[in-house]
Structure formats: structure tokens, C-alpha cells
Amino acid sequence: MKYPVLGALTLVLLSQFPAFAQAVKSSRGASSPGHPARKKAPEPLEVNPTPVQAAPVPNWLASTHALQPSATMLHDLVDTRLEVRFDWPRQWLLGVATITLRPHFYPQSQLVLDAKGFDVKNVEMVNGPKKGKDLKFSYDKKKLTITLDRSYQRTEQYQVRIQYVAKPNELPKGGSDAITEAKGLYFINPLGNEKGKPRQVWTQGETEGSSCWFPTIDRPNQRMTQEISLTVESSQKTLSNGLLVSSRRNSDGTRTDTWKQNQAHAPYLAMMAVGDFAVVSDSWRGKPVDYYVDPAYQYTAKQVFGNTPEMLEFFSKKLGVDYPWDKYAQVAVHDFVSGAMENTTASTFQQQLVQFTPRELADVTYDGSESVIAHELFHQWFGDYVTTESWANLPLNESFADYSELLWAEHKYGPDAAALVQQTKLRNYLDEAQTKREPLIRYRYANQEDMFDRHSYDKGGRVLHMLRSYVGDEAFFASLSRYLTQNKLSSVEIAELRIAFEETTGEDLMWFFNQWFLQRGHPQLRVTHSYENSQVLLRVQQVQDTLYQPVYRLPISVATWSGNNQSTEHRILITKADQTFRLPASSKPALVKFDDPGILLADIDEVQSQEELLYQLNHARGYLQKFQAIQGLRSKSGDLLVSSAFRSALNDPFWATRTTALEGLRRYRGAEGSVVRKDLQRVALNEKKGTVRATAISVLSSFPNEDFSDVYNLALKDSSYAVVGAAVVALAKAPTSATRTQIAALQNTRNPSLLTALSGYYGLNGTLDDYPWFLQRSQDAPPEVLYVLLENFGMLMKRMPPIEREKGIQRLETLARTHPQVYVRLGAYKGLHELVASMPVLKTTLQDIRNKEKDNDLKAMYALLQ
Question: Which domain holds residue 799?
Fold first, then answer.
């Protein structure tokens, strides 16, 4: 789905407001563990009769919401044909929909369609003896209720034609963390008066946005074939699902393109995009693979999207099911309301995720745009080919797409790259779990948008990683192939996935699916070990609150390392809240490593000595173990052995290990001071990867009262924007008149990371001369920059005469009240808050902003700033 880029930024905000986790309860609520599986009823998990810890009800256990069952199917969608044209000045879609349906089982004489915010002009019967007859209907701006000409049986298809006008801007505002608006149809710069922004129309269907631009049964358990004819200006390109089957020039100078989707898919996956796109063509096994981008980015499009054919081949072979659709296109659009969306055969992307200048490409890593590209492509199997029957089962779409990011990294870049994905995703979930813990499959929620969270994505992907480890690679992918083949072009719930694994492996896996998919929470483990009588005594305590979470059954691998650098793997099965395992060892091991491969989804407190951590760092098999060792040793970085090990890790083959080692040397105060600083300068100037060079500069700047300006000034000319931005941040702590001129030369950049750094520099060191820069950038900077830039704008204005602040204050107030992005409103509010001490009158303004804010989480953040 909607790749939750903005949800990730919300986690960043949470990290900047430590008290927020305690002050704000999740608005999404808890759900019950139980919706019975279709083929087997889940069995209860083992729960301690005496809880490990008796605690108050945790803040993530909110009130129970109403049951949200799958939508009842009175009718089956069969086919939808649309004829659409656009009224750009009024931002309307003028449409004719011809919909083919049949009763699902029981006879029906009435049809109810989702149709939001339309003017409905006419409804008529298309087929049968009363063809062309106008049908009676009622309409409440949400539901179109049509009285059919007679009662229809489940063996009978019928067609209705609806003439309508869609007016998306008249809809009530909706949205969530993952998708910021929910009006389905979006006109971008419709009058063409926004400089530097193209005119575009695009759609976003998930979850129920398709019914904002065509009448349908807007539920994920429906499927339809589709044909869309778009009449557009002759210069515009179009894209929709399926293949372009005709393109006709019209006498009025317009053009009508017809796109046909021959295999049925869910209504929320219908899409269209219109704009001045450059189309860069590629192919896979003879099928078209196209990239739609702004013309300015056509020459870098293949560098961004160019691995798509290889991904198609890899995923097809890995799953044992070839990519099932006629084509695959990817389109970058402006002001997209999410990160990306997996529309069938045509994924849509937020343009800033996939459109880069040649210089910006140097900073693009596989865990950036490439992971999003893999994510949306994998949805073409998991979500499009096989679709969740209800939003309660959303992880059947999103967990798999999330896990594809690890699969691709593993295939293309190796096990260290996959381990970095694993680590990042686990941390994302654990951060969210501080304020929210829900079952993955949850049948109780306030709103279906609440399902798009770090549980459905990151936690679900980690659960699949554990399942893969448990059954083995061959069985895992054979089970996925069975699941896709048996359920192709249909909707499913969690039982189908479980049954596919059970039929493949021959094992009853109810215990796994019950504890990981149907129960909330995760294991919180304390692991200690000792050595006696030729045995390692490994004690594992599950310390999670078992009033609300299960005692987990955990098959785990433990490695013991002997002094001759040989390791022995031990498989253990944890089933109790407190267990001690005896592992044979002829001598005291140099290292005992719990969950050696780093598979487990858990919060683990593993007690290890400094000697063990050093051994682990020096003998680690991969990135995860090295990272864990460096993190465990950071507080001991002044020790000569530790700092030497960190310096050695600066030469590690994997860039993220080098970055972690650099962070371990931040504010270093040990005996190797001069050597460490020389190493840091060497990395800052000579390291091949920009991300690592930037980190080295940041670490150098952590040493107080030390002058590395020569390094920073050289970095201002670096090819990497990340490095230049790090140098600007470093120089902001110790500005000089000489560097101000160099930094001023960067002001016209449009690069987000550099814009953010410049705003910090001027926020700390700017003068009235820099005021116009902030005024301009507060208008044209992307949202992810504005959050930081607007607070820095307030910092600058603190040093300005109050009489000069009027335009800036008005700008901040407008953004705090009206910007669609929550975190931009927060940034503007913080910018105003910076000025309260010198302008007490702003307290009234801030109070009014707080009172009128409708987002409860944001209001709680505001409360923390008072």
C-alpha cells in the first residue's frame, strides 16, 4: 500500500518528544484477539496463572472498539467501464459509469453503491428488455441507492449506467498518518499558476477513495474487470490499469485514451494519472515496463527504477508464480498523499521519493527509493493478485510487501544489507509499541485507516522472517506459491495463509499464527548465562506483562564460541516465563550469543561482559552482531581495547558498520584521542560512501572547542549533499565570517537535506539579511523540510526587531492552522512558540491554534510545549 513514509516521520516526532509516549494514549485502540479462522478455531495460548509483573493497565491498552467484520456481499461487481473528462478550473470529473453486477447469492431488487460527493445526473438500465429505462434512485452524497427494474437472481448479470459529476474538493477532510487526505481524486496546479509545478490529475483509492471518483462497491472483497476512457488535452499523457487499447484524437483538439484491465482486481486498486510526463520504456520477458516522470528527470529515471526488471524476475522465480499482469508501470506524481501506492499494473509514487538529479543520486541508497519500489512491486502478488478480504486482515497485504524489502536487499546486496533492513524494521515496531500494541489481525478498530501502522508493516514483516526461519527457505517459498496459486484473483483472510503453510509442511501451525497474528505485544526477554561443570547455564526470562500478552513459544538458536574461534549452534525451545537451559561446553566459551542469527521479534536484554562484546565485534558473522557489540561497548569507548576495535571497524566492508563505529567514537575522551581524530578526519575526507563521510563530519563536530574547520570547508565542496549538509551543521556551531560567504552560495539549493541544514545554520547564526530566505523557503520547501525549517525561522526572528517580524509571524500562523501535514503544523507552532518570550501577545494566538486543532495527538504535542 500506501507506503507509510509519513508514518516514519511521525516516529521521528515521537523521538523528539520523549514525554509524548506517556502523555498520549494511542487513538487507535485495542482489539480483541479473536475472529475465528474459517477452517480451524484458534486455541488459547499458555498464559501464566501468576503474571510476571503486576502492573497498572498499560497506556497502549485502550478501550475496545466495535467489531469490524468483512463487508456483506449482496452483489458481486463484475465489470466497470468509465468515460471521464476533466473540468480543470472547477476541479471536477465529468463521468459516465457502466457497471456490470450480479447478486451474490440471494435475489436482489435494489443496488446500493458507494458514491461520495457526486452530482448524480441520471441512472438507467443498460441491458434487458427495458434497456435505456431510467431507474429510480435516492442519494445522500455517500450512498447511491438504486431501485432495479425487477428482482435479479444470482445467475443473472445486469448493467446500470450512471452519469455523474465528482467534486472531490467538496468532500469532508479525512486522512491518517499513512495517507494525509482521503478525497480519492486530486488536481495538482489545475490553473497552471504555481511556478515550477506541473498540472496533473491523479487518484488514490486505498482504503475507500475510489468511490470519490466513480460509483462502485468500495470494499476490498469485491473484484472487477475494468475499462477507463480518459479524454484529455492532446499534449497530456495518461496512465491507468492494464493496457492502452486505443488512443483517439477528437475534433475539439482533445484525445481519448482507453485503458483496459482484463483480470479482475479490487476497486481500491483502480487508478489513473494525467500530466505532462516523460515515459521511459523498459521491458521484462516481453511485457512493457514503463517509468512516468517529470521531463526534467527522464535521464535519471532508469538509474532509479532500472532494477525493476530484475526485481520482476527475482520475485517471479522466488515465489514460483510469474508476475501475473499484462504490464507494469510506475509513475511519480506531485503532492501525493502517501509514500506510494500499489495500483494493479501501475504503482504511484511521491515524486520526491523517486525523482533525483544526477548529483542527488549519489546519496540514494537501496534502503531508500529502491526499497519502496520493491515494496510496491511485491504488492502486485500480495494485495493485488491475492487481496485481503477486509482491512482487519491488512497484514496479508502489507506484511509481505514490507518483507519484500528484506528479500530484495538480501538478493541484490547480501546478508549485511538484509540485516540492516531487519534491524531498522524491528526498531520501528518497538518504537511504536511504546504507545500501541495490537494483534496483527485485528477485527476491532475505530477506523480502517488505523490499520496502516508499524504493526501491519514492520511487525508483520518480522513475523514472516521468523516463520521463514522456522519452516526453512524451501518450505517457506513453496507455501507462498501454494497460497498465491490456490487463492489467485480472490480475497482471503489469515486462515488461508495458515492452511497453505500447514498443507505444505504437514505441521499444525496454529500455535505460531495464534501467538504472532492474533495476539498483541511481543516478548520482552532478559537473558543471562554462567558456566559450571562443563555446561553453559542459559537463563531466559519473559518479563512482558502477561496479563495482556502471552507467554511465548520461541524456537531459538544459541551459539557458543570456544577459544579456538569455533562456534557451536544449539536449538532451544522456550515455552515458559522463566527457563534455564544447559548447553554442553568442554571449556568456558569466549562468547554465548542468544538468537545468534538475529531472527526474533523481541525486546532483548542480553547480559554480556565487555570481553564477550569485544569477542563478538571481532568475530561477528554479520552486521547485526557487530552493531549490537558496538552499542553494548559505547559507554566503554575510552578503554584502549574498545576504541581500537571501533577504529578497526571503520574499515569494515559494510557501510552501516562503519557508520555505527563512527557513532561509537562520538565525544571520545580516551587515551587515543589524537589517533581517533586523525581516523575521523581520514574517513570524513576519503571514505567512498557519502553517508559515512557525513557521519564522520558529524562526529568530529561533537568534540567541544576543537577546530576542524579545514575539514568542514573542504566538505562544503563535496559531491554529496549529505556531506555538504553535515558540514553546514558543523559550521553552525562555530561560524566564521569566512565560511558565511561559502554557505550563502548554497542558498538556492532545492535539495531537502541541504535546505534543512541551511535553516539550522541561519536559525542559530542568521541576521535580518536572511529573513527573505526564510520567507521564500517557507513557501517552496517540501513538507519534510518545513517541520525543521519553520522552528528555525522562529529562532531567527527572536534576534530581529519585533517590528520586522510581521510577515514571518503571519506565515507561521497560516501554516500552523491550515497545512495538511500534521508535522508541518507542529513545526510552524514551534516556530511561533520560539517568539513567545519576547512577544507575550502570541500566547493568545497559540491558545487559539490549540483550541481549533482537530488532531488529538498534535494537540497533546502542543500541550507539552506550554
Answer: 747-866
Q: Which residues of 720-729 are buried (b: 16+ CB within 10 A; e: fewer)?
A: bbbbbbbbbb
pLDDT at 621 over 90: no
Burial 669-704 (b: 16+ CB within 10 A, else e): ebebeeebbebbbebbbebebbbbbbbbbbbbbebe
- 80 and 210 housed in the same domain: yes
pTM of the full structure: 0.92
Residue 738 CB contacts under 8 Å (≥ 6 apart), including other chains: none
Are 429 and 514 in the same domain? yes
CA distance linking residue 676 with residue 662, whole number of Å? 10
Answer yes or no: are the C-beta atoms of 345 and 408 closer than 8 Å.
no
pLDDT score at 7: 43
Q: Mean pLDDT, the chain, as a whole number? A: 92
Residue among 537, 542, 512 nearest 526 (CA) = 542
Distance CA 377, CA 445 (A): 28
Q: Is residue 831 part of a domain?
A: yes
Q: Are residues 448 and 498 in the same domain?
A: yes
Domain assignment present for residue 425? The answer is yes
Specify the number of domains making up the chain: 3
Give the full edge-to-edge strand order of the sheet including 278-284: 278-284, 287-293, 328-333, 346-350, 340-341
For residue 434, give the C-alpha cell. Answer: 511504546
Residue-by-residue DSSP string for 60-75 = T--PBPPB-PPPP-SE
Q: For 342-384, where are the E strands, in sequence order?
A: 346-350
Please write the tens of the pLDDT for every residue from 514-529. Answer: 999 999 999 999 999 9
CATH number of the domain where residue 493 is located: 1.10.390.10
Which residue, chain included where needed, has cell 559505547? 634
Domain check: are 501 and 373 in the same one? yes
127 and 154 part of one domain = yes
Query: What's the confidence (pLDDT) of residue 736?
Result: 81
Answer whether residue 609 is part of any domain.
Answer: no
Choosing from 501, 521, 541, the residue where a domain stops is 521
678-682: Cβ within 8 A, 24+ apart: 679/647, 679/650, 681/708, 681/711
Strand partners, 280: 291
Q: Could you tell me if 453 and 391 are in contact, meaning their C-beta atoms sit under 8 angstroms apart?
A: no
Q: What is the pLDDT of residues 219-257, one digit of tens each?
A: 999 999 999 999 999 999 999 999 999 999 999 999 999
User: Does residue 327 surpass a pLDDT of 80?
Assistant: yes
